[in-house]
User: What shape does this take?
Amino acid sequence: MAVLGLIFTATKLAGVLVTITVAANALSFSRYRRKNLRPIRPLIDESSDTLANFDVGAE
Assistant: This one.
């Protein structure tokens, strides 16, 4: 029975450590993203009326 208690305690401890590690990585990445990654500006000008014009026959 002592072995089962030890395994149960070790499993709980491993779960807590994994949870803390994932939370720390998420926090670290959010700080990195805020400091180093700029938002990507949209490449398509959506304010214009014509977004695309495919005149195949016109030269």
